[in-house]
Write a structure and sequence with these properties.
This protein is mainly α. It has helices at 10-25, 32-39, 43-50, 53-77, 84-96, 103-116, 120-141, 147-170, 177-196. Helix 1 packs across helix 2 and helix 4 (53-77) runs antiparallel to helix 5.
Amino acid sequence: MPKVGMPDIRKPQLVNATMAVIERVGLHAASISLISKEAGVSTGIINHYFGGKHGLLEETMREILRRLSMSVTTSLSQIPRNDHQARINAIIMSNFDGYQAENKVAKTWLAFWSYAMHDAQLGRLQRVNEKRLLSHLKIELKGLLPHSQAELVAHGIASLIDGIWLRGTLNPKGIDANNARMIINDYLEKQLAFYSKL
């Protein structure tokens, strides 16, 4: 977490510099020196406010997660509460469109995932993100399915989001948001049809 007193203009500057350097050289080679040079600040500022590279990576991921959460919340606020399928689509598209699909953001996500397995604080951020996604999906799915099935289908959709996103990120052509939506909707429609027959 950045220390209190960090100028607001500096945070986005350093977050963007961190992502740009990770995109260019990867996380392991993304040194404080390279990041500070990219941001046009001294290494001392990063060390003072973030305690080094780890703290800056944590703040970068917090910003990406904040932007994702804001995108989902904004999209959902524009859709009637009883239009569950449209709201599920909004959740899906928030994970594949715009900021989240930018190359530098996607590469930072990949770096974060690899680090989160071995770092308690980053692992906690990943768990918060996962719980938030599942919570949004379950709320909407409970309007379409019984509770136990909603839980299962929410995990299925979350797995598809993660898997499609990962494959798209590793693809030189990038993430195809419309294809992702079609694949996940195909799964959802089959689940709804299956459970309606029970």
